[in-house]
Amino acid sequence: MLNLTKLIVFCLAAFVAVGPAMAQDAGSDAGGFSLTPVAALGAGLAIIGAGLGIGRIGGQAVEGMARQPEAAGKIQTAMIISAALIEGATFFGLIICLLSK
User: Fold this and answer.
1) Contact (Cβ atoms closer than 8 angstroms) between residue 57 and residue 79
2) CA-CA distance, 5 to 54, in Å (whole number)?
3) pTM of this prediction?
4) How far apart are CA 1 and CA 61, in angstroms?
5) Do residues 46 and 93 touch, judged by C-beta distance below 8 A?
6) Which residues contact 12 (CB under 8 A, 6 or more apart)?
7) Helices (H), the chain
8) What is d(CA 8, CA 14) in angstroms, rounded to the nearest whole number?
9) Is a pLDDT exceeding 70 seen at residue 3?
10) CATH number of 40-101: 1.10.3810.10, 1.20.1260.10, 1.20.20.10, 3.30.70.100?
């Protein structure tokens, strides 16, 4: 319950901080690039999801290696491939969020 409260407080703080960050005009020194709050939220959620997924993969892989040291090579290979696939999907989602207007 405490983690949920911390998450809610963090999200509210992030929403409050977005307003001043987006106060700049899109044409001044932005090079024609403007990040909408919805795109920023989508990009943030994509990064948070990827971080949680890769962290869970890494933790479970280390736990599996500790239980079966003889299978450490296969577990490590599968972990790296899974992390790379998650990272690729995250970059795709991040680019889609940043390019959408």
Assistant:
1) yes
2) 23
3) 0.62
4) 27
5) yes
6) none
7) 2-21, 37-67, 72-99
8) 10
9) yes
10) 1.20.20.10
